[in-house]
Every structure is written in C-alpha cells, then in structure tokens.
Amino acid sequence: MKSRALLVVCAGGVLAACLVGLMPAAGWAQGGPKKESSETVARPRKKDTPQPEPEQAKIPSKLQKKDLPADLPTFKSDVTTVTVDVAVLDNKGRFIPGIPKGNFRILEDNVPQQISNFGMGEAPMTVAMVIEFSNLFQGYWTYGWMETLQASYGFLETLKPEDYVAVVAYDLRPEILSDFSTDKRKAMEAMQRLRIAAYSESNLYDALTDTADRMSEIEGRKAIVVIASGIDTFSKLTFDKTRRQLQTAGVPIYSIGIMQYIREIMDARGMMGSIARLDFLQADNQLRTFSKETGGQAFFPRFAGEYRGIFGAIHEALRNQYSIGYQPTNTERDGKFRKLKVELVAPDGQPLRITDEKGKPMKYTIVAKTGYNAPRAVE
C-alpha cells in the first residue's frame, strides 16, 4: 500500500516580507524562482523528466486507456467497498479511543449499512503543504506569518519517518515546490524558498481541486491542510463545481483561515467597510464548507500563538482514526453522489453516551466525509 503525507495550503503573500531578511539573495535550490521571468515559486517537474529516486513518490496522474497494452485482459467486479475514516473528538479536540465497532452506524442516503471492516490505530500519512503565495494581503500579516512558519516546521517534525510530505504554493496557479518525500528537510527548504510574491491573485478553487485530484489515487491516510485567506479571485471552476470535485476526490481538507487575524488589523486601521466584512464571512464559509464536506476540520485563529495548538490538533485527528468499510446495499453504478452519515449509537439504538474519567457526560464531535460518488458502469 502506498503511503504519502499531508498537503498544506498556506496563505502566502504575507509570508514574503518576513523571509526577505532570512534567506540569502543567491543560492536558491535548483528549480527555484528565476529573476528574469518573475517567477515566485518553483515549477513542477515535467512529464518527460526522469523519475525521482526511490525514497520519493511522484504525485500519480490518472492512467489513460491509450497507455495500456492492447492485449491486456479486463475484469469486471460487482463488489464495491466504501472506506470511511472517522475521528471522534471531545470538546477539546482530543481523539477518543476505544469505541467498539458495534457502536458505529453508517447511513448511506439514510439507509443503514452493514460494517464489514473495522480498525483503529496509527497509520502512515500523506501530507502536503500548499501555500497561498500572493500579494492579496501582503503587509497585513507579516508577523503572524513568521509565527505560522515556525509552527509549520514544528508540525513537520511530528511526522514519522514513513510519512510523506509535499509542499505546493499557489497564486495564479498551483506550483509544486517539493514533491512527496519522506525527507522532511526538503519540505522545509521549499518553504524557505518563498520570498516576494509577484501577483495579487489567489485562485483557491483551482489549487484545491488540482491538488485533491493528484492525491485521489494515493492509498492510505491523506489530507490537504489549507492555510489561506479563503478568498478566490478568478479560478476556472465555480464554488459549486469545486465542492463536487473535492467530494469526488475523497481527500480530507484541514483549513486554517487567516481572515480573523487580518480583519482585526484592517479594522484597527479603519479599512473595514460592509463589503469587506461580507467578503471575510464568505471566505470563512468557503473554507468551512470544504473541510466539513470532505471529512476534515476548519480553524480560524485570532492570534499567531494559536497555530502550534492547531497543528497539534490536526496531527492528532489524522494520526488516530477509525477506519470503517462496508459494501453498499445500493449496487447501482450510476456515478451519482451518495450522502453519508456516521453516528455513534447505544445497543438500544439511542445516541451513545460517552463519559469522562469522572463519569460525567462528555460532548463529542464525529469527523467524517459527508458523501462519495458511486462508480460508473464500464461499457
């Protein structure tokens, strides 16, 4: 089984000013920005370039029929297994372990399903850091970005040797700064290459869908962690189409929105009009929607000091999960979207009551994707 790491999408224009004094003017890693072309991030590897060394893993692309041998036999199967990763968190965001299989109930389009596979424990992760590297809010988040960068390094250090991590930045389009690798130093070096942003565009939808599509065929636990404003300037995709594509890809998205921090700075400078406030609320709602519908979580810190705790919560949620599998009662291969709901129930069918070490009832949250697209029949 392949394993990779987590893809984090960070908000980037603000990062630029902080790092100018930290990196030398020359000696950037090979493939980095070219001064004469005004590039701000490294270009991704082209298709005809040599394959990376064994410890790296290329983000897979979809296999085309023309690439298959003509005499290759084909097989059809009527059995489909749906796998759902579930995290059960207490009111402080801590993972709750030890819940038996019998207390989980999965509903597909409101129809109960029979659980066939069940497991819990730590597993290798696929992680990628995707950075919104834009001039959109440069100058409003300089100090906060420096704190976030330091916390991101700390998050990388929590990953295990078998975990894979990649770094992607985006403004007009997503750019791969470092491909998936178990070498965490490459991810750190990639973040250090970010300096001064060249564009004031932030195409969030295109960056998220491109990243999720590339990760959709990677097996094992995977996620996209987005540190971004949540604002999209002029992506090719609409908000609704982005939602559908992210749900189809099945990659959990963990969002960290920076608008709370920026809002306070702009408000203090008298720059917060009614339109700006509406834009901020919409941006937060977009990140929250992407996270909820893919089985991730959304965070909206007000202070830079909160990032360390947020990255710790993301690590906890990703590292410890229940993996639940079932064969759908609806066997139609129609490609339609099917809603999922995961519940915790007692033997009598009522909601499960969880208590703390003192025997007091404890509130909990179930984090899981809200649906998937059924496969289409192969003609």
Number of helices: 8
Please, how many domains?
A: 2
Tell me what portion of residues adopts beta-strand conformation: 15-25%
Helix fraction bin: 25-40%
CA distance, first residue to last residue = 28 Å
Q: Mean pLDDT, as a whole number?
A: 77
Order of helices and strands: EHEEEEEEHEEHHEHEHHEHEEEE
Largest sheet: 8 strands, mixed
Principal-axes shape call: globular
Secondary-structure content class: alpha/beta
Note poorly predicted spans. 1-77
Number of strands: 16
The whole-angstrom Rg is 21 Å
Name the CATH superfamily classification of the largest domain.
von Willebrand factor, type A domain
CATH topology of the largest domain: Rossmann fold
The CATH class of the largest domain turns out to be Alpha Beta
Mind telling me which CATH architecture of the largest domain this is?
A: 3-Layer(aba) Sandwich
SSE layout and pairings?
Layout: E1 6-11, H1 13-19, E2 56-57, E3 82-90, E4 104-108, E5 111-113, E6 115-122, E7 125-132, H2 142-158, E8 164-170, E9 174-181, H3 184-192, H4 204-215, E10 221-228, H5 239-249, E11 253-257, H6 259-268, H7 274-294, E12 298-299, H8 307-319, E13 320-326, E14 337-344, E15 364-367, E16 371-373
Parallel strand pairs: 1-7, 1-8, 1-10, 7-8, 10-11, 11-12
Antiparallel strand pairs: 2-9, 3-13, 3-15, 4-5, 4-14, 6-13, 8-9, 14-16
What's this entry about, in short?
With 379 residues, the protein is of the alpha/beta class.
Provide structural commentary.
By secondary structure, the chain is of the alpha/beta class. The chain has two domains: 6-44 and 123-318, Rossmann fold (3-Layer(aba) Sandwich), CATH 3.40.50; 82-120 and 322-373, no CATH class. It is 26% helix and 25% strand. It contains eight helices and 16 strands. The chain has helices at residues 13-19, 142-158, 184-192, 204-215, 239-249, 259-268, 274-294, 307-319; strands at 6-11, 56-57, 82-90, 104-108, 111-113, 115-122, 125-132, 164-170, 174-181, 221-228, 253-257, 298-299, 320-326, 337-344, 364-367, 371-373. The strands form three sheets. Strands 1, 2, 7, 8, 9, 10, 11 and 12 form an eight-stranded mixed beta sheet that branches. Strand 4 and strand 5 form a beta hairpin. Helix 2 (142-158) packs parallel to helix 8 and helix 5 (239-249) runs parallel beside helix 7 (274-294). The longest helix is centred in the last third of the chain and has 21 residues, at 274-294. 38% of the residues are buried.
